[in-house]
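Q: What structure does this chain adopt?
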Amino acid sequence: MSSPLFDLQGILAGKVPVAGMVISIDGGVVQVATRNGVVEVAFAEGIRAGDRVAVRDGRSVRIQDVVDAPVFFV
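A:
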């Protein structure tokens, strides 16, 4: 179980990854729309506009969507 105080300290220290969607790519920088606003960060190869990414240490990392996972009904 996490403590709200420790969660807030992690967010303020920048240690908690922020998730969002790539809205534009310009050179080596992407703009990522997050719930806290737009963030500009460096990106890795293979990221396109519309991809869901996590922002960690000033770089964007693609997040695998849940839709890509196979669904089994039992």
